[in-house]
Design goal:
The chain is of the alpha+beta class and 115 residues long. It has a domain of 44 residues. The mean pLDDT is 76. The chain is built from three helices and four strands, in the order H-H-E-E-E-E-H. The strands form two sheets. Strands 1-2 form a two-stranded antiparallel sheet. It has a two-stranded antiparallel ribbon with strand order 3-4.
Length: 115
Amino acid sequence: MLTPHEEEKLRLLLNMLQDHDYYNRMYRPQIDVSNRLRDERGRFLPNNADQYAFGKQGELLLDLSDIDEDEPPREIKLVKVEGTYGTYRVEEKMKPSDVVALVCFVIILIIVYFS
């Protein structure tokens, strides 16, 4: 049980805290996200969700119309980072055409260096 003097001190302290930035930052009004669209895993979709299409079972369908048929998607390899939970590093696999271009570039550099 608090004495009247302690109650007065506590009331004064609470009034001082309400004006402080830290208190206002912690107790700011919450944003209503109940109307935001989510994907099948429950993650929020961006606000401009009209760009997204959904299948019959609610799965997100990707629009691949802007990808050229000549250029397949790049190949990547996910490598788990040791000592972490759910963190992966992306390693890109080089295409044969990239390797040829790199070798040509190195040969040109060597020729320029020795000439």
